[in-house]
Amino acid sequence: MTTHAPDLDDPTTDPLEVARAAAEAIAARTGVARHDLALVLGSGWGGAAELLGETVAEVPSHEIPGFSAPAVEGHVGTMRSVRLHDGERHALVLGSRTHLYEGRGVRRVVHGVRTAAAAGARAIVLTNGCGGLDPSWAPGTPVLIRDHLNLTATSPLEGATFVDLTDLYAARLRAIAHEVDPTLAEGVYAQFPGPHYETPAEVAMAGRMGADLVGMSTTLEAIAARHVGLEVLGISLVTNLAAGVGDEALSHAEVIEAGQAAAGRISRLLAEIVGRI
Ligand code: 8IG
Asked: How confident is the model at residue 46 (pLDDT cuts 50, 70, 90)?
């Protein structure tokens, strides 16, 4: 608990006002007045920010207005300010996210993204762990998000807020990622509400609709990011074959293992991409 920030759950509160309060608290707590870009670390990505630069401050997220404590094992409930290797820019690393399935409302789900923009970020890297539909993507394969299917039946935007989502996942940033790793695959990410995994029939449906990846995050955050003018890069870590694609049952232990196995590759990938953004 910190300040007298407005209540995010009060429908008469402007969520961007809470984001500004959060950004002020972050500046005060980290001593970094302005963050140039932000990253959200999803399942399996916990250690992937280690090579970005030097951590100059670390703050428990729930001490910043509008943020709540993480609910998922393998997620880290802290945010960090990292000075990048150029010695000038700073990245705000959000070590956890609020998922839609937590039932705390869409405003909480996208609060980190809005806060990043209020803190000065121009670009955001959204990472996640997900299921893959392509059987050639072994657990531990990173895949660039080219586009998405928002299957949550909701939006982070309220009222008549019409936002163009053409090129939501910025072609400029995807080109940088391909430069760093020419072998990176691209795919369409479908967000389901969760928290259960899909049935095999639902995975088959998603595939016919154009999905290559299935998960429980990212699309609402990407929409909110575009709304506040952030450039968006999305990277999924395939931690398991989606239900019915392989023969194995899905488990959260498998998710954590795949993240650990891929740690070196995805850490280098993130650091090199961020260095060029
Ligand atoms: I990690 O197979 C992870 N998150 N919806 N389906 C969905 N979310 C996921 C999956 C998956 N794996």
From this structure: confident
